[in-house]
Predict the 3D structure of the following.
Amino acid sequence: MTKSPWIPIFLLLIISLPLIFFITSHFIKLPLSPYSSSPPPISLSDELDDLALFNRAVNSFHPTHLAKLRIASTNKKPKIAFLFLTNTQFHFAPLWEVFFKVDNVSGVSVYKDLFNVYVHADPNVRPEIKAQGFVFTKDRFIPAKATYRGSASLIAAERRLIANAILDDQENMFFSLVSPHCVLLHSFKYFYDTILQVGKHQFGEMMSVKFKSFIEVIDEDVNLWDRYNARGKNVMLPEVKFEDFRVGSQFFTLTRNHGLLVIRERRLWKKFRVPCVRQQSCYPEEHYFPTLLSMQDPEGYSGYTLTRVNWTDSVDGHPHTYHPNELSKELIYSLRKSEFKEDYMFARKFSPDCLGPLMDMADDVIFKD
């Protein structure tokens, strides 16, 4: 009886499968998607790198600078550090240049002494992020590490941005985290004047200023218990009790005092860096900052964000995305409106093809306060 010629081939294939798996897993490194359902934990080497960075930033800041800022006695005005956390190209860079009033020939901003820009661009994302225009140049990019949705890597990236901004310029007094998908709703002057006006108190001939941070802090939410237990039941204890747990928007404007608090903090971070076991409830970047500030300085923040987000038809945790057919001056005016004291200053998110229509209404609508 003649044996089938396919039997040796089949046996060879069975024997070869482990070898094939070994080669592909060790030599062919497929990038993990930033939106992977099981993001990797933060590595020890990344943790140590960040810790060294945070220590340098804290040690570089003299304690005397934490004293009350006396604007009346100095000609220098506080600077705003704009922190961009991104894994996309800067499609709206031209609009931001109008916001900063950058001259198209010289590349110099009218407000060049009042702001700095820092960009954390995910190194895992391909193709390479391309900076556009004068504002988003390569020298604005800080050393970055990979970020993954639903993981503490986003918290680490935001702390990294703050630390680099502190080290770069001692005059950075505010840290405003924004997204490349954010669109401006007011002029730079309007935004600058707004955050400087909050918390001012007149004492005699001098003006003592205690600025506040703009960050959303929510203690009542239908999903609060699920989010608290995203890492497993009681994992957050004893550092974070359920009654101390808060949620809020990812985007914020923090004062320098709060920026220093964030990069000094170690105790809560030990809990928030633990990987989640329930990804559908895992939004660490929306939990860590509100919880930390609520526990450490409950009187030092507004409790609301300056970034407008439309959650009416969210998909997979993403808010509504505006497209060109939805754009109008009426939309810009409506997005500005807030139930709080200050207007919304930014709005997200917008599709890249909105740039043209937004540029057309920049001078007459968006930046006309």
Q: What stands out?
A: The domain at 44-309 is CATH 3.90.550 (Spore Coat Polysaccharide Biosynthesis Protein SpsA; Chain A).
